[in-house]
Amino acid sequence: MGLEALLTHPRHALVGFDYDGTLAPIVDDPAQARPEAGVVDALSALSQRVGTVAIVTGRPADQAAALGRFGSAAGLGDLVIVGHYGAQRWHAGDLTTIEMPGGLPAVREQLPRLLDGLKLGDVDIEDKGLSLAVHVRRLPHAQRALDTIRGPLAKLAAEHGLVTEQGRLVVEIRGPGIDKGHALEALVREFGARAVVFVGDDLGDLAAYDAVDRLRGEGIGGLLVCSASDEVEELARRADVVVAGPPGVLRFSRELASLLDG
Ligand SMILES: [Mg+2]
User: Fold this and answer.
1) Cβ atoms of 160 and 107 closer than 8 Å
2) What is the pairing mode between strands 13-17 and 195-200?
3) pLDDT tens, position by position, 233-244
4) Fewer Cβ close by (within 10 Å): the C or N end of the chain?
5) 24 CA from centroid of ligand 1 (Å)
6) Residue 262 Cα to ligand 1 middle (Å)
7) What is the DSSP string of 135-187?
8) Residue 200 Cα, ligand 1 centroid: separation in angstroms?
9) pLDDT category, 99, cuts 50, 70, 90?
10) Residues near ligand 1 ion, CB 5 Å cutoff
11) How far apart are the C-alpha atoms of 69 and 84, rounded to whole Å?
């Protein structure tokens, strides 16, 4: 079992967290998504007790670092933040980025006109540099708006060699072949982890769940944790542990740290 493997080999364990909806509550303005109070201390406590603590997010890695103020946090010097689903890495203040997906500038230019044509009202475009996120959370009929934009955005993305990823009242356009599963697996290989825990809340985290399943097939201990919400059901069905949103993730992290002391 994953928990047993982690408790047996804590120095060879990797604990990975998604950011939004997992460490930080979802808020209307993604630029204001701060970690749940106490998260930084909890990650720091875990970081002293396991081999590697990582954040794997769709955000730019340096943006997640800034929002969480992780760079200046005591005891988090080893924290690794993988951003843009794996296209970017932040560690100890250093940011490494791959090249921008080729079709992105054209999509960036055409996207506002396409959204205007759909006449949905105030859709938020979040330009993440290596990807574009279209948020409908602030619209009065957000779920219906999401259904309306999904198809046209997928078509626009495909025309420029890009792909879409749906999240909680958001559709993101980004480069192909990059997902949280490949990102997590790469971290496990790099750090030689013999146990891996992954905590996520959204559809983009399913790729990381798949990676943990693949790694289990190789004898690596895996533990899947779901930060549950009433917006997404798919992860709770597959998880070993289901907790209630970021406050539940915080409690889980603290309990994990105390188990490692026991
Ligand atoms: Mg999330």
Assistant:
1) yes
2) parallel
3) 999 999 999 999
4) C
5) 8
6) 30
7) E-TTSTTHHHHHHHHHHHHHHHHHHTT-EEEEETTEEEEE-TT--HHHHHHHH
8) 6
9) low
10) 18, 20-21, 201-202
11) 18
